[in-house]
Write a structure and sequence with these properties.
Shape: globular
Number of helices: 10
Strand order of the largest sheet: 2-1-3-4
Distance between the termini: 11 Å
Number of strands: 4
Length: 218
C-alpha cells in the first residue's frame, strides 16, 4: 500500500532546501507519495513574530545551515537575490514582494498538478545552490520548471489569473500545518504526526517503516 504524507515547505527556508532533496530521494526509493504544500515565509506571514526573536538567530541559522549543507555535501549559499525583499541590517520587510508572491503561487500551481515536490526541488536548487546569480532572471526558472515536466509560462499565467484562489490554498496549507501540531518548516506530516526540521528525516523513515513502508518494486 502506498503511504502518503504532506511536506510543508517555504521557498525562502534554507532548511526546507536542505530537506527537499532527501525527501525527494525517499519518495523515489519507496512506495511513498509526498504532497508538497507551500506556505508563506514567516517574514511575509507574520513579520512581527520574526522580529521578536533573539537577534543572534539569523547569524546562527546561516552558520548552522552552512555546516548541515557541508555534512550532506549539498551545494549552498544564501540566495542572490533573496526571495524576500528585506533589509538584512534593519530587518525591515519591503511592502512590495514580487518575487516571493510569484514563487509561492507558482509552487502551489505545481502542487495542483501533482508535481509540487519535483518543482520545489528543482527551483530551490537554483535559488540556494549558488550555481547561478539572478536565479529569477533569464531562463533559469523556465529550465527548472521544464526539469519538473512543467511549463513556466502556463504556471505564470495561472499565478496571475488565479492569484486569489492560489493564495487561499496557501493559507489553507498553513492552517493544516498548525492543525497538525506545528508552525514551522520544513515539517512533514505523516499519519497525523508532525516531524519538524531537516534533521528528522531518519525519524520519519523509521516511523513509516513501522507503518509498512517498502521499497518500490519490492
Amino acid at each position: 500500500m502506498t503511504l502518503k504524507a504532506d511536506l510543508f515547505f517555504s521557498y525562502r527556508s534554507p532548511y526546507s532546501y536542505l530537506a527537499i532533496g532527501r525527501y525527494r530521494a525517499m519518495a523515489a526509493e519507496f512506495d511513498l507519495e509526498i504532497a508538497l504544500r507551500p506556505v508563506w515565509p514567516i517574514a511575509i506571514r507574520d513579520p512581527d513574530l520574526l522580529f521578536t526573536g533573539n537577534p543572534a538567530a539569523p547569524r546562527y541559522i546561516l552558520m548552522d545551515s552552512m555546516r548541515v549543507a557541508e555534512m550532506h555535501k549539498i551545494p549552498y549559499r544564501w540566495p542572490r537575490p533573496d526571495p524576500v525583499v528585506q533589509n538584512l541590517m534593519t530587518r525591515e520587510i519591503a511592502a512590495e514582494q514580487p518575487i516571493i508572491h510569484r514563487l509561492v503561487r507558482l509552487g502551489q500551481a505545481a502542487s495542483r498538478r501533482g508535481k509540487g515536490l519535483e518543482f520545489a526541488y528543482q527551483v530551490s536548487h537554483i535559488i540556494f545552490s549558488g550555481e547561478v546569480d539572478g536565479w529569477n532572471e533569464g531562463d533559469h526558472l523556465a529550465q527548472a520548471s521544464a526539469r519538473a515536466d512543467l511549463d513556466l509560462a502556463e504556471l505564470d499565467a495561472e499565478a496571475i489569473s488565479d492569484a486569489e484562489a492560489l493564495d487561499a490554498e496557501v493559507a489553507a496549507n498553513q492552517d493544516a500545518l498548525e492543525a497538525a501540531g506545528h508552525w514551522g518548516v520544513p515539517t512533514l506530516v505523516f499519519d497525523g504526526e508532525p516531524f519538524f526540521g531537516q534533521d528528522r528525516i531518519d525519524l520519519v523513515q523509521w516511523r513509516m517503516e513501522q507503518k509498512g513502508l517498502v521499497k518500490r518494486g519490492g
